[in-house]
Structures are given as C-alpha cells and as structure tokens.
Write a structure and sequence with these properties.
Blueprint: H1 12-28, E1 33-36, H2 39-46, E2 58-62, E3 68-72, H3 76-82, E4 87-91, H4 97-109, E5 114-117, H5 126-135, E6 140-143, H6 147-151, H7 157-179, H8 187-200, E7 208-213, E8 234-239, E9 242-243, E10 246-247, E11 250-255, H9 261-278, H10 288-299, E12 312-314, E13 328-329, E14 342-349, E15 352-360, E16 365-367, E17 376-377
Parallel strand pairs: 1-5, 3-4, 5-6, 11-17
Antiparallel strand pairs: 1-2, 2-3, 7-8, 8-11, 9-10, 12-13, 12-14, 14-15, 15-16
Helix pairs in contact: 4-5, 7-8, 9-10
Length: about 375
C-alpha cells in the first residue's frame, strides 16, 4: 500500500494519555488486558475509525504496552489514516473470525490470562463471545463494559471544541427549519433543508434527530414524512449533527405561520423551568436536584401532565445506534456533576421541546448551543 498521510482527530499524546488511564484501571483490577468492542471506545482509545465499524473489530489493550487492533482487511486504508498506534492484524471474509481473534488474543496477552471484555457492546454477540471463550480455555473473564465508557464522560478541551463546531451546524439547521416552517411545505422538504444547512456548516453527517408535526409532534422520536404543513401546526424538531462523531444537539418549538398567546406563555413557562433547574448545575451537585426542579415545574403546568423522561444525558463521541453516553438524570440517579462533562438537557411538554447542549464549568455550566431560546414562528423574524 502506498504511503498514506495520517489524519488523526487528536494528538498522539492525547491517545497515549487515554491508554494510560485505561491501563491504570486494568492494573487496579489485576487484569492482563481489556478487549474493547464498543465502536466509540475503539475510536476514543486508539483513533481508529471507519464507517464499517459494524463489522467484527476490536482492540486489545494490555496491562502495559501499546494497544493492538484486530480488524477486517478492507479497512486497512482507514487504519493508516486514523489509528494512532502501530500494531494490528487483519482478517478477511473467508476467515473464521472468532478463531482468528482467539489466536491474536493469545499471542498478545499470553495463555491463562485474566481478561475484561465489553460484554454489553452490541458488535459482540453472545455467540461470538462464547466462541472466543471456548477457544481460550483456562482464561478468566469479567465484564469491562464500563471501564472506558466512564472515562469518556470527562471531555478534553479538544473534544469540546469538536462539540462546539457541531453546535454551530446544529444552529444553522434550526435556522433553516425556521425559514421553511410555512404552509404548503412538507416535513421531507424541511428535513432536506435542515440536513443541507448542517452539512454545509461543517457536520460530517446530518439528519434531524426528531422532526414531526401536527398530532405527531406530541410524541417523542418522530421521523419526517411527506405530511404538508398547515397553518397553526406545531413542529417538534431536534437538530443532531456531529463533527468527527462528536455531537451537539438542541430542540426548539416551531409553529407554522401563527402562534396563540396561550402557547407563547406556555413556552415561556418551560424556559423558566429550565432556567431554574440549570441554576443549580455545578460540579459536586447531585443530578437529582435539577431533575426534581424540572419535574416539579412541569407538574405545576397542569393536572393531566405526566413526565417520565430523563432530564439530562451525557453526550460526546457517539456512533449509531448509540444515542447517548451511559449517564442520565432521573429521580433515582446516584451521580454528581463534574467539570467538563457535557450533556443534552431537555424537557418536552405538550409537543413543545426546549433543550440545550451544555458543558459543566468550574462554577456552573455554559451553553454550547446558543440559538435564541424562544418559540419559532414560520414567516416571522427571529
């Protein structure tokens, strides 16, 4: 293969620092290695990224020394472009993938080793895990699903900079949606305009996370259809771009060409609830505190309002089908905010969604998404 110029997302030193943190955890647990299968964790720890991440690939992180990548041979170009380390071995489609993997694990780690493996990773099926385990008799296995995922919750400045770039794309997508929230426009046309605006503004992949109108706007996670907007329609929209797979996202309520005073006041109430909750956010504060403010405020809006959604969830490096990192705020949450965590925080009531991507600072929080916090009315200026 000809010489390929590397295109690392971060400096090699940052990847080395991440591996060092993982190895500290491995050694603390008296393990010989961690097998990394979550696509986000593979990329976070080593840099390696390919859009073919759904194929059988993983990283061996030994208790000492450099990580080692096992991957499909057609991805070698992307190994040369993005993998920050040197050791890798390639399987081809005619190989027995699990036996190939087992032989490499034994070569790198040795016999009768103690290994953590990401059992919760979706690319690692039960069948694949059992085949590898049966091949490597005498090994001790334990679940390592959360070792790297927990480390990823605290972002570096470089990671947050990618999220800030994604936020700019998200804002341009919302602006495009506002401009076409007009009678006669279809959800599909709005989605096309939103996606185009985000891609042209730097997003590596676009797509409104949520776009639905009319009665469907009352329900979370709707996708766009060919429905045509009518006057007074309510539109639920969340823009979800990413830069180098680092996400920022937010929601704004949108009305087609008209909005009643009742709805305006209702959205103002939602914004006030969010402001009151976010005032309490800072390092050391229990997630239950702003979560309760959210819920108490929402319940005060009407007797028939029911709210079971999470109010914060961690976001950062995400790859489909993942929609968030494993840290969420709800009444039973037992964690506290820490500096440089980043969250999508939201509330959705009666079809009106208001959300932000935020970063936890030493004394509180800052908004990464900075779009005007108001109801957007098609045909009217921001």
């Amino acid at each position: 293969m000809d010489k390929i110029k590397a295109d690392l997302w971060f400096d090699h030193d940052e990847y080395c620092s991440r591996i060092s943190k993982v190895q500290k955890n491995i050694n603390k647990r008296n393990l010989d290695a961690l097998l990394v299968f979550f696509p986000e964790n593979v990329t976070w720890s080593t840099g390696f990224y390919t859009r073919g991440y759904s194929s059988f690939q993983f990283v061996i992180i030994p208790a000492s020394g450099e990580p080692f990548l096992v991957c499909r041979d057609v991805e070698e170009f992307y190994i040369k472009k993005t993998f920050s380390f040197s050791g890798y071995s390639l399987w081809c489609d005619s190989d027995d993938k699990e036996k190939f993997a087992s032989s490499i694990i034994q070569k790198i780690v040795g016999k009768n080793a103690s290994i953590a493996i990401e059992k919760m990773a979706w690319p690692l099926s039960v069948n694949r895990y059992m085949n590898i385990k049966n091949d490597l008799k005498g090994y001790r296995w334990e679940d390592g699903s959360h070792i790297i995922s927990k480390l990823r919750l605290i972002k570096s400045e470089s990671e947050i900079n990618y999220q800030k770039k994604a936020a700019i794309a998200a804002e341009m997508g919302m602006k495009a949606a506002h401009e076409c929230a007009l009678v006669g426009v279809s959800e599909r046309e709005m989605a096309a305009n939103v996606c185009s605006a985000m891609i042209l503004s730097g997003s590596d992949r676009a797509g409104p996370g949520v776009l639905s109108s009319g009665e469907r706007a009352m329900y979370l996670h709707g996708g766009y259809t060919d429905r045509i907007f009518k006057k007074d329609d309510k539109i639920q929209l969340e823009t979800t771009p990413h830069v180098r797979n680092y996400h920022a996202r937010f929601m704004r309520p949108i009305m087609v060409e008209n909005c009643s005073q009742k709805d305006l006041r209702f959205v103002e109430s939602i914004i006030k609830i969010q402001d009151n909750a976010l005032k309490e956010v800072k390092p050391g504060v229990s997630a239950k505190i702003p979560d309760k403010i959210y819920r108490d405020g929402i319940f005060s809006l009407g007797k028939n309002i029911r709210y079971t959604n999470k109010t914060f969830y961690s976001i950062g490096l995400l790859m489909e089908p993942s929609g968030g990192e494993p840290l969420e705020a709800h009444p039973k949450a037992d964690w506290r905010f820490k500096e440089n965590m980043t969250f999508h925080t939201y509330l959705l009531v009666n079809g009106f969604g208001m959300s932000e991507t935020i970063r936890i600072t030493p004394s509180g929080y800052e908004r990464i998404t900075k779009f005007p916090r108001k109801i957007l009315i098609g045909g009217q200026s921001l």
